């Protein structure tokens, strides 16, 4: 599952909290305004009924009401009932329930036919056992409709508002975390090994980013010093080992020319000589890598015919392939030119093909393809050997790492562990790419890409 970036997570949390707070605030405001409007309507209704009651004159056990009294005033309808609940005067809304019981001095909300009203009844005694009821009816349907429309409008605007807040929050978060992005970018450039002397730009403001940048720079200083010490050690050790190994090789070759020693002794000397030559090759590779990493090696970049170079490499390694009964096949597009150092590119091809031969199965096939694709030169070295376990695929490029156990434990042609490391290093120098595809028991496929001239 792909993980969200910090910017996205912060934006989501920020937007989510704002959304919840806005929803709670609006709900609270909506409820408060609704209750406030209902309370105001209730007070107005009670006041209107009291004012309407002032129009009555109670005298001598009866009541008097002016003939020009208005039964509708400021949105309130008035009805007059006797003590038995019979309607005497007034008017009421068409859909209002006519048989609604009278309740003295009690405000009620009544719903009927999708309409809503607020009702208030007041009883007034005007004689022995006589009473008159005044009912005030105020419609609250329009108010409820208005509140409902406000709620629908908010529901429509709410997502857009949250989206706008999210976009603004993301922009603000991105701007706030821009120094972190710059630190990551520079750190990746440094970690690639292209320029270990490069450092992060220290912010002027002494905040958390300033402290983080200084800490990273101190760490890079220690890493660079450690890496330089390692390169110096590799170079010094390689130089020191070169002479004694050369002496061992010379003495072994001299001893093999002597007739005074037995064949069994010569066989033992040949084993020593073979291992000494391996060590000499390893030392040569280490010296070349050390010199290149310290900038003491110059490369001769020129136009190189990669098609011809692959064919030459296959011819050179054909004898070794025959020893293992491996068939070398090729599929080469002619005339593919690349800008590079011919010696290094030759070493790259030899290492790749030798690797496939060393780890290929007996009577197997190693196929080398070279062709043009998307303006680049693509090469593929494929074998049908035992392949590489998935847990070793990302480690085979490391120096001195050998995944022999995952491939062929019976293989006698065990390498130095520098071949693929040097291949990747050469490809990087030429600003190319290389990767591997492999499945255990089915073989391996090394693919490289170089810029075409």
From TrEMBL:
Source domain of life is: Bacteria
Give yes or no: UniProt keyword Zinc: no
Q: Which residues does the UniProt record annotate as the domain Histidine kinase?
A: 236-453
Tell me which Pfam families the record gives: HAMP, HATPase_c, HisKA
Residue ranges of every copy of the HAMP domain listed in the record: 174-228
If you read the UniProt record, what top EC class would you report for this enzyme, in one word? transferase
* Gene Ontology MF, one: phosphorelay sensor kinase activity
Which catalysed reactions does the entry list for this protein? ATP + protein L-histidine = ADP + protein N-phospho-L-histidine
Q: Which GO terms describe its cellular component?
A: plasma membrane
* Transmembrane feature ranges: 12-33, 149-171
The EC number(s) this enzyme carries: 2.7.13.3
UniProt-listed InterPro entries: HAMP_dom, HATPase_C_sf, HATPase_dom, His_kinase_dom, HisK_dim/P_dom, HisK_dim/P_sf, Sig_transdc_His_kin-like_C, TCS_sensor_his_kinase
Q: Does the keyword Ribonucleoprotein apply?
A: no
- Where is it localised? Membrane
- Where is this protein chiefly located? membrane
This chain belongs to the protein called histidine kinase
Taxonomic source organism:
Anaerostipes rhamnosivorans
